[in-house]
Amino acid sequence: MSSNRFTSRRERLLRLKTLREGRTTAPSRIDAPALFEQCPNCNKACSKKQWNTQLLVCPHCGFHRPVSAYLRLSMLLDPDTFEELNDSLKSTNPLDFEGYPQKLEQLRRTTGLKEAVVTAKGRIGGFPCVVAVMDSRFLMGSMGVAVGEKIARAAQTARKAKLPLIIFCASGGARMQEGILSLMQMAKTAAAITHFQEQGGLYISYLTHPTTGGVTASFASLGDITLAEPEALIGFAGPRVIEQTIGQTLPEGFQRSEYLLEHGFVDAVIPRSAMRDTLIQLLKLHSKGGGRRG
């Protein structure tokens, strides 16, 4: 049963159905007033239909556009299995940071999100699991108190239910408006994930563009299996900051998924088209006796 008891199951499923159909009422829709939209990477024109059928991957160059949290979940979860967790959790303004409450309210209106991460229970290929998806549209997916708490609670839910945990990371790091309280979430999320793993839980970390800062330095790097989307920027500090600090030119593709794969930081680079099938295979391999749980 969902932690958000005031939202009916039908309403939650309708939210995902709306996203699949691309209706304009969807909070995470792609705004494309024209019939064609230029790829930000290769500058070639793609129709809206091409973007949608290709899961927001450019058919010309393979560029992976950012995916909103609910849309990612609709791509991933089996139909009628989405069950949102801790939907009511959202950031306040613990440090009385000027303009922060107004910024949060603006983002909640424009994105349809309450925070930079959505957590849910569901099934992928019939296998039950807990999934968290970060959304870079909400303050660059930065981790404040509410984000850290939702990640920690997702790990606790997975531990108690003995389910695999999958987190799609996309973040600019810690949220500066919450200061030291934001940095504390690094320890909290890492501890929750570690406790989950010590109890035998499977944690799959899926890194998307960009995954940086305190998120990289905490739960994003703790996966039993670490996957990444093509060309995702993954690291603590950005390349320009590193170059300015050490006074050296970095290798080509430094901190991109493929470079990190070559150097053992991630286990595989998985394009979005293979995302769901890959996760189904991993869940099957790690389930008891190779069968479906639940």
TrEMBL record:
Listed cofactors: Zn(2+)
Localization in the cell: Cytoplasm
Keyword entries, A-Z: ATP-binding, Cytoplasm, Fatty acid biosynthesis, Fatty acid metabolism, Ligase, Lipid biosynthesis, Lipid metabolism, Metal-binding, Nucleotide-binding, Transferase, Zinc, Zinc-finger
Binding site for Zn(2+): 39, 42, 58, 61
InterPro entries: AcCoA_carboxyl_beta, Acetyl_CoA_COase_Trfase_b_su, ClpP/crotonase-like_dom_sf, COA_CT_N
Source organism, top-level taxon: Bacteria
SUPFAM superfamilies the record matches: ClpP/crotonase (SSF52096)
Catalytic activity: N(6)-carboxybiotinyl-L-lysyl-[protein] + acetyl-CoA = N(6)-biotinyl-L-lysyl-[protein] + malonyl-CoA
Molecular function GO labels: acetyl-CoA carboxylase activity; ATP binding; carboxyl- or carbamoyltransferase activity; zinc ion binding
GO terms for cellular component: acetyl-CoA carboxylase complex
Cofactor details (free text): Binds 1 zinc ion per subunit.
Enzyme Commission code: 2.1.3.15
Subunit structure: Acetyl-CoA carboxylase is a heterohexamer composed of biotin carboxyl carrier protein (AccB), biotin carboxylase (AccC) and two subunits each of ACCase subunit alpha (AccA) and ACCase subunit beta (AccD).
Protein name: Acetyl-coenzyme A carboxylase carboxyl transferase subunit beta
Annotated source species: Candidatus Allofournierella pullistercoris
